[in-house]
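User: Before I run my own analysis I want an independent prediction to cross-check against. Here's the chain; please return only the structure tokens and, at the end, one sentence I can use as a sanity check.
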Amino acid sequence: MKVFISSTVYDLIDIRAELAEQLRTIGITPVLSDDKLSDFRVQHDVNSIETCLVNVESSDEFLLIMDQRYGPTLEKFGYDKFSATHLEYQHAIKKGIPVRVYVRDRLEADFVIWKRNKERKEPVKLSWVTEDKDLGLFELLNEHARLQVDSTASNWYATFTSSIDLKAAITKHFEKRILPERLVEAIQNNVFPLFDIKVEASPIYIDKYFVGMWGFKINLTNISRVPAFHSEVYWEDGDKDIEGDSFIASSQSVLMDFVWEEDSDVVEKFLIIEYESSIGISVRDRFCIIGRIDGFAIISGGRLVDRKFKRSAGISLEIEDA
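Assistant: Structure tokens:
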């Protein structure tokens, strides 16, 4: 997923860099004109504004960060009297790209005062937006507020106080969106814990006499390259007691067993394993273990019949001081 970050540049250079790094951390490709590591494509045959608009078009989502500066208007370059950020926003709306707007809380406070007093002839003194050249921020916010909530372009916006809560809000929004993609990628790269099952059944003898019972040994093996955390293995028709290890490393196995008395030709039991991964996803696997009498022999096996993925709070490990 590619996300275009739109804002004034020089006054927000640190916030832009922090956001870019945070998006990369959660698996999203940031697009910024001032970041050499981003996926921003330079168009050598068009001007810088057109290049930005092309990059907006090629992004999957658009983030607008509004703070204290509106930016210089571009009418002398043949555009309407809008800043580059304002033009990028309008282009995203026009192209139907999902837009999320984040507004500094001080700007929102000035915006409320401006709306109440914009019909007055004398200027209103504001505490955050102190220069006339930045009043375009209010026009942009006003334009955004007129969008319909139930339309493809929502007038939603959120406020932030610092880069810390801004990053937290953006991460919360995108982590839910990106988690399925991260899961697929992790499985493809064998860095998500998944289990395979092996079943062996053998007759039980007492004093060399077969006693009409069969012993089943079940081997659940973590076939990935990463561990499974907070693991529980239990029989579906039994109590949910922890069997095996809470931490199951790569290639490690958990052994389970049961005894079957031949009261029918077929036995069927279900084994459950629940565990958590390191990427905020928990898993519940349901395996079917089956045995069938065929003459004087038994045919046995196991197979996965159900696998459910759920979002989880993530892994937390306690470390004691030495």
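Sanity check: The chain has two domains: 2-185, 195-311.
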